[in-house]
Structure formats: C-alpha cells, structure tokens
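User: Structure please.
Assistant: Input sequence and predicted structure:
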Amino acid sequence: MTGDADAVVIGSGPNGLVAANLLADAGWSVVVLEAEPDPGGAVRSGELTVPGFVHDRFSAFYPLGAASPVLQSLHLDRYGLRWRRSPVVLAHPLPDGRCPVLSTDLDETCRSLDADAPGDGDAWRRLYGLWERVGGPLLDALLTPFPPVRAGARLAARLGPAGLARFARFGVLPVQRLAEEEFSGDGAGLLLTGAALHTDLAPDTAASSIFGWLLCGLGQQLGFPVPEGGSGRLTQALVDRFVARGGRLVCGTRVTRVMVRDGRAMGVVTADGDEVAAERAVVADVGAPALYRHLVGAEHLPGRVLDDLRHFQYDNSTVKVDWALDGPIPWAAEAARRAGTVHLADGMDHFLESSCDLLAGRIPARPQLVMGQMGVADPTRSPPGTETAWAYTHVPQKVRGDSGGNLKGVWDEAEGEAFADRIEAQVEALAPGFRSLIRGRFIATPPVLEAADANLVGGAVNGGSAQIHQQLVFRPIPGLARAETPVRGLYLGSASAHPGGGVHGGCGSNAARAALLADRLRRVRVLAAGAAGPVAAASRRSISGIQRKRNAGSG
C-alpha cells in the first residue's frame, strides 16, 4: 500500500510553510492541512474595519523575518515578496516632549540619545558594535537545532574566552539593569525595554536584555520591515513557492488526531473522518500541549512527557486594536510621525507598574503599548491621505483583578470596548486629535485571537513564555530542545519548540531538517538489513478526494 504523501504538515503558519517548502525542496511529496479557510496562521491580512483599509490581523513588522537565514534561503522575492520600511524604525514619545528614536541611520539614533543625555550616543555605538561583531553568528545559533555547534563555535571565536564570559553575563541581565549600567539618560533604556517587552518579559526579568538588544540591533541594521500590501503577502509568497514545487495545500480541514502505530506516526485523521497517510513524517505546526494531549494522546506518550506538560507556560494574553484613520496620527513629537513602530510608556516606572500588574494577574490601568502606523512604511495599505494603525498590549492569562476599573477578564464585547477606550486615551494624550480621526476600529480580545488561530491560546502570540525557564533545553519541556518527539516520525515545528516565537521560520526549519535526517538514517538501516520498500500506511480516502469534496462544498 502507498500513502497520500511523504509528509503531512499540520498547520500553515509560517513555520509549517517553511517546513513544507524545505521538504518539497528535498523531493518529498508534501501536503499541508490547515483548519482555517485561509493559510498563514498569525501572518494574515485583510479588511477588518472599512473597505479599502488593509490591516495585519496579527503580526505586522518582521525584523527577524528579513534577517532570518532560513527565510533568506527561500528567495521569496522571486514569488512576489517586497519589503517596505519606514523612515524611522522605532520612536518612544514621552509626555514632556522628548522622543528617543531608533533609526537605520546610526548617527540619527545617537543624536536622539545624546539630546536626552550627552554621551549616551557613544554608549549606543559601543552596544551596537557588539551586535555588528556577533549578531550574525548569534542569530544563526538561535535559529538552528540545539546544540548549535558550528554557529556556537563562530560566536565563541569572535568573542574569545574572556569575551564569552562577559557576553554570557550580558545575556542574562535584566534589561533594566543593562540600561542602568550602560546609559546615564532614559532614552536608550526605553528603546531597549520597549523592544524586550514584545515578549512576556518584564524589565527586571533575567535575560530580558538579550531580547531587547537583539531587536534593537536588528532594527538599527535592517529596520522593522513590512511586506508590501500586507502581512498576507509573506504567506502568499511561501504558499506560491511551495505549490510551484508540487506541494498541496488544503484549507478548511482541521486535523483531530495523529495516527500512531507501533510508536510511529503514520498520518493524520481530519474532523471529517478522512485519513491522510504519511510515508515518512508528520510535522506539527501546533502548540505542544495541543499536539501531545489532543492529537497524539496519553496512550502513546511516556508519563514524564505528560507530567512535564503540566508545567508548560503560555505567554501573556494580548488585546489588539486596529484603526482605520482619516489621516496620520497627529503625534505632538514630530519624530514619532516618521516611525513605523511606536512604543508608549511614560518611563521605566510605567513599564514596571504594568509588568507588576501582569505578574499579579491584574489588568493594567495604564497598559504599555506597542503601536504600528502602517502607512508610514507602506502607503499601499489605505487610500491616499489616510492611515491604518494598530496597538496591542498584554493582559493576564488568568485575570484576578483590574487596576484601572471593574473589568473581569471575560472579554465580551463590552469589556473589549472599554479596554479599547483605555488604550485610545493613552494615544490621545500624546497625539491630541487622534480620536477624531477614527473612521472604524476592530478589537481583538484574547478569545477573538484564539478563535481566529487556535495556536494563539488565550491570546498568547509567542507559542509559550520567553522566560528563561522555558527556553533552549527547557522548550517546550526539559529535554534536548530539538524537533523530535517521543513518537517516531512526528516532529514539533511550531513556536512552542526551540527557538520560540517570532516570524523567522526556525522552528519549521528545525523540524524539516530533523525529518530529513531521520529518513536518511532509516533508509541506511533498511539497506544495511537487506530490506526495501516504503513504510506502509493505509488511507481511507486520498488527499485528492478531500480536495474534490472541499471544492464541491465551496460552490
């Protein structure tokens, strides 16, 4: 008997599509099954507010994507991907009129910081010099399977023994402490801290420095690019490349079970009862808890895996508001008008206050905001003279109170509207007249985010906490930080796996590489034993049959 494909990929987020492309490049027949009507996971765009305004439904800026060796190797520009960048990468306007900025022009960044505190520009140059020296091998080390032997060796060679020890200390510093050690003013610390808080790390959390420095280093070097026309264009380029290599993508098909026989993944079962067999591998772009508990099942897993899963921690929940605006946001600080990304917090105390609320399970009274004004980077997103903008902030996964009112964390329509008003008040304070420009808004609360992408559990956007107890060999559970699972032929390729959240394709690439290596070794063993033939896998209906049924139903 023959299977439906060499590999089945569950989920068409960026990691799933990267894995599918790499397996197809190796000559495998690959089918991707996606539960949602359209591909992309958290990389999708559409008209959320009013016609003519294209919004990124989830993620928007992609410094890791533009820098990723994995995505670069796919040459997605040949499939229509075009990166656009804003004049200023990042701005942090303050109530007193100051506005430190991060620019791809190093001199502009340093002038901005020197205006806040003379000498901080030179301190920034030194910190960026470290990025220039080790950023490349560090990124390679982070995005390749663990342990990163070759990239780690290059990193160690550039740092030397003494430098390696200093860098290790630097890497585990809280970003608040890094700012105190390196800068005399507030500006640089706010840029670094705001970047670090794209994760669920607080300013006083160990290792928050490395995240802030990495994102600022990428921003200084490459900017925070966006796909021209919307984030969905990145997904479309991945899909077009995959299909051009013979791959098959089927949307609207939810996988409900991984078929396991004698400890090996043989394929998947869909919600319609169809069985799709996999000759060589199943790659899951699915959160680790959902994969192990629901798709595989306890009967196929060691007890220690199920026990360790009890400690798996998702990152904080997210609330995102998208706006269609009749004009650009009227920031009081002129520099903020030229920035694609804007961070809002009145200072380090504001960052700490909001983080303490989250730690205590309280909805922040003054949430720290990450904002995007997409027309600054890509004017094609809306009609001339208008703007598409968004803001997101974190709220607790389990709400125990509200520091700013009486929200309970049920996140129904009324609570979503009330919290969006709270967000808009913060923007209005720094950009008087902002509210008068709003033509339409769309509020994505944690339940709305999870309903649109099941991997965004409770509105968590990074596939699991970025805190040090769930990184490297602790991600998703204590082990070797590799894509292999306890089930042979099944590979975890989602952001729950090392290296974690962000649109970089590393998790999918690691899963594909693991599958290819395991298949080569298996074939060597088969040849050595004098056997031949593929692994048998039965299928109740072929994937082409599923596609015909979907096409008939869509008419």
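The two ends are 33 Å apart (CA to CA).
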